[in-house]
Recover the amino acids of this structure.
C-alpha cells in the first residue's frame, strides 16, 4: 500500500425528498445568490427543477439560470457561465443534473474566481480556489458529485480533457434522490452503470502490491452494480436498485477504492477519443473499450484477472489454467454489458474502424499524449491494437 | 434503504512518515497554539511523540501538554484539559494516541467552547460547536479518528456514556502511520481488531430491508480484518497487515457501512457495563459479549446470520437447514477471537457471573437504560440471558 491522502469533505444528503432542503444547504455553505446550471427538459419533466426552484424561493435565495448543458460538456457553456456569475454577482453554483452539468458547474466555479482563461487549468495550471458548488444529482453515472475531477471538451480542436485533480473542487454538498433517476431511459441507466463499473476497474487493475482492503471494497461495489443495474432496467420505477446505483456511483469515483494504489485510466483515455469523434455516450464507449483493454493486457497479471473473475463474477477458479478463469471473467463482463443493452463493438456505437489511425493520431497531439496508463503503459501501437480488438470483439 | 446524511469532512493522511507534516495540517485548519493530548510512555517509546513535537517546533507552533490519559478515559482529564485550554489560550487540540486519547481530546474540544459543564453533552444537550481537533493515531481500534462519537467515563457514578453523535466533532484531520502500531502488544492489537469488527457487526445486523451495498462494504471490511489481524500478531513489525487494520478501523466507524440502515449497538451497551465494572479492554469485553449476543438473537433473522456465515467466513450454505449455517458463522467468529488470543467468556476477563444482576441494575439506572438495541430490543431479562450465555460460552 502506498501513502495517500483522502479528503472527501462533501456533505451527502441521500433519499426521497432531500432536495426540499437545498436552500438550507446553500446557506450553510455560504451561498446568498445562486447560478442554477442544468441541461434540458428532463429535470423539468421529472419534477427536480420545480422542487429545487421552489425550495430556493421558499428560502429567499435569488437565482439565475444557465441551461442547455449537453453530454460531453463544452467550453462555450463554461465561458457563458463565468460571465453570468460576474454579471449577476453570484456567489454559489448549483448543478442540477448528471456528470456533464456538474463538471460544467465545477469549471464555472474555478473559472469565476480566476483572472485568466479557465482552460489554463486543463493545460497544467493547479487549481487553488473555487466558488462553492452544490449538486442535485439526477443521473447515476459519472460520480462527479463526490469527485475531485472535471472533464470538459474544448470546442477549438475537439479536445476532451480533464483538469488537474484536486480536493478543492469537490462539491460542498450533494443531494442524491434516487427517484429522480427512475425516469431515465434504459440506455442511459445502462450507460451510467458501465461508467461507474469502469471507474472501479481503472483503480482495481494496479501493479501496487498489498491492496487487499481496497480490492475488497472495489469488489463490493462491482457486485452491487452487477445486481442493481439489470433490476433498475427491468423495473425502472423501483426505488431500491436506483438507490444502490446512485450511492455506488458516488463511491466508485470519490476515490475510496483508489487509496494507496497506482491507478490505470487507460480505458478512459481511449474512450475520450471515441466520444470526441462520435459523441457517443461515455458509458457506451467504455463498454466497448474496457473489455478490449482487458483482453489486451490480461497476460500482464493473469492472477489479478482471475481474482476479478472469481470474486466479482463468481467464476470457478481453474487452478491448473488460471488464464482460462481470467478470460472467463472478461467474457462475463462483456456479456453483462450486452445484457443491459450496451454496445460492445466499435460498429455498434457507429464508429468506423477505418478511423482508428486518426483517433490514435488525435491522442498523440495531446500534450503528454503517449504513453498513458499505469497497469500497462499504452503506446500508439497498443491503442491501435485495443481498438482493433474492440472492432472485432466476439460478442 | 432509509434516507441518510453522510458527512465525513476529515482529511486523512495515511502512511509512513506522514506525521512530519502535522504542523502544516494544524495551520491549514486554523491552529496557532496547540494542546497536545496523549497517554503514557508508549508514544515516547515508539517515536511518535518525538516526531510530532519535532514537527510542531519546526513549524513554530507553540504547544502545551496533557498526558496520562488511560483506557476508558475519565472525566477528570477532560476538566483538566478544558482548564488548560483556557489558561494557555490554546486554539487547537491535537490527540496523539488511540480512541481514549481522541475521545478525551474531542470532549476537551467541545467542553472548551461551552460555558457550562461538558458532561451536559452526555446527558442530552446537542453539541453545536467545538474547538478544532486533529489526530495522530497510534492504535487501530476505536475508529474515533474519523467518527462522530465520543465516549467518556464520569468518575462520579462510574458512568461510561457516549455524547450525542454529531458531525461537528469529527476531527479536522487524522494522520495514520501504521508503523506506530507495530510496537503494540499482541493483546492490544487483537483487542483493537475485535473492536473494529464489532463496529461493523453493530451496523450489519439490521432490520432495514434492501441494504445490499452497505452489506457488501461491511463484508469487505470484516474479511479484511479476519485476514490482517492474525498476520499482524504473527509478525508484529510487518507493515501491510498493520496498514489494512488501520484503514479498516477508520472505515468501520466513520459510518460508511451504516448509511441508510437502522443500527443495533446492543453489544456495545452491554460491554460498557463490563468495562465499567472490571476496567477490561473494550475489545476484550466485546469478544465476550458479541458472540453471546448473536446466539441470543439469531432466531430473529436466521438468513441474515447465514449470509454473515457464508460471505464473511466462507461457510457452505445448508439450504435445508439454514440455522446450522447461521450457527456455524457464530462459532467461527468465536473461534477467530480465541485464535487471536481474546477472551470469550466472562470468567476469562475476570468477571464474576454473580455480578450479572448488578450490571443489569447499573444499566437500568442510566437515563433511558432499557430497552436498547434495534435488531432485537433488549430488556433487563435479555441482557441477563446474554451475559449468562457469555458466562457459559462453549469455547
Amino acid at each position: 500500500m502506498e501513502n495517500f491522502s483522502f479528503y472527501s469533505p462533501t456533505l451527502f444528503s441521500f433519499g426521497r425528498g432531500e432536495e426540499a432542503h437545498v436552500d438550507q444547504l446553500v446557506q450553510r455553505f455560504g451561498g446568498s445568490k445562486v447560478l442554477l446550471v442544468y441541461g434540458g427538459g428532463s429535470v423539468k419533466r421529472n419534477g427536480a427543477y420545480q422542487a429545487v426552484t421552489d425550495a430556493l424561493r421558499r428560502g429567499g435565495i435569488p437565482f439565475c439560470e444557465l441551461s442547455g448543458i449537453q453530454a460531453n460538456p463544452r467550453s462555450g457553456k463554461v465561458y457563458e457561465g463565468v460571465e453570468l456569475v460576474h454579471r449577476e454577482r453570484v456567489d454559489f453554483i448549483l448543478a442540477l443534473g448528471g456528470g456533464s452539468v456538474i463538471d460544467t458547474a465545477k469549471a464555472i466555479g474555478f473559472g469565476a474566481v480566476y483572472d485568466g482563461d479557465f482552460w489554463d487549468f486543463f493545460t497544467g495550471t493547479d487549481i487553488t480556489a473555487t466558488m462553492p458548488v452544490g449538486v442535485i444529482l439526477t443521473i447515476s453515472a459519472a460520480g462527479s458529485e463526490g469527485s475531485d475531477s472535471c472533464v470538459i471538451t474544448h470546442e477549438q480542436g475537439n479536445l476532451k480533457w480533464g483538469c488537474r485533480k484536486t480536493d478543492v473542487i469537490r462539491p460542498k454538498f450533494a443531494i442524491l434522490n434516487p427517484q429522480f433517476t427512475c425516469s431515465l431511459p434504459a440506455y442511459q441507466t445502462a450507460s451510467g452503470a458501465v461508467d461507474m463499473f469502469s471507474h472501479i476497474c481503472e483503480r482495481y487493475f494496479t501493479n501496487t502490491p498489498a491492496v487487499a482492503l481496497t480490492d475488497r471494497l472495489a469488489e463490493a461495489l462491482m457486485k452491487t452494480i452487477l445486481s442493481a443495474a439489470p433490476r433498475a432496467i427491468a423495473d425502472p420505477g423501483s426505488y431500491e436498485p436506483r438507490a444502490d446505483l446512485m450511492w455506488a456511483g458516488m463511491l466508485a469515483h470519490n476515490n475510496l477504492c483508489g487509496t494507496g494504489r497506482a491507478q490505470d485510466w487507460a480505458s478512459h483515455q481511449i474512450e475520450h477519443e471515441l466520444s470526441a469523434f462520435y459523441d457517443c455516450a461515455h458509458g457506451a464507449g467504455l463498454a466497448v473499450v474496457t473489455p478490449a483493454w482487458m483482453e489486451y493486457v490480461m497476460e500482464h497479471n493473469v492472477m489479478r484477472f482471475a481474482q476479478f473473475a472469481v470474486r466479482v463474477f463468481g467464476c470457478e477458479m481453474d487452478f491448473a489454467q488460471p488464464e482460462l478463469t481470467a478470460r472467463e471473467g472478461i467474457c462475463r463482463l462483456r456479456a453483462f454489458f450486452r445484457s443491459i443493452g450496451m454496445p460492445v463493438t466499435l460498429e455498434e456505437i457507429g464508429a468506423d474502424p477505418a478511423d482508428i489511425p486518426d483517433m490514435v493520431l488525435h491522442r498523440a497531439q495531446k500534450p503528454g499524449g503517449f504513453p498513458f496508463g499505469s497497469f500497462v503503459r499504452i503506446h500508439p501501437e497498443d491503442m491501435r491494437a485495443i481498438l482493433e480488438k474492440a472492432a472485432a470483439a466476439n460478442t
About this structure: Chain B touches chain A at residues 1-18, 210, 212-213, 216-217, 219-221, 223-224, 227-228, 239-240, 243-244, 247-248, 256, 259-260 (CB under 8 Å). The domain at 11-181 of chain B is CATH 3.40.50.1970 (Rossmann fold).
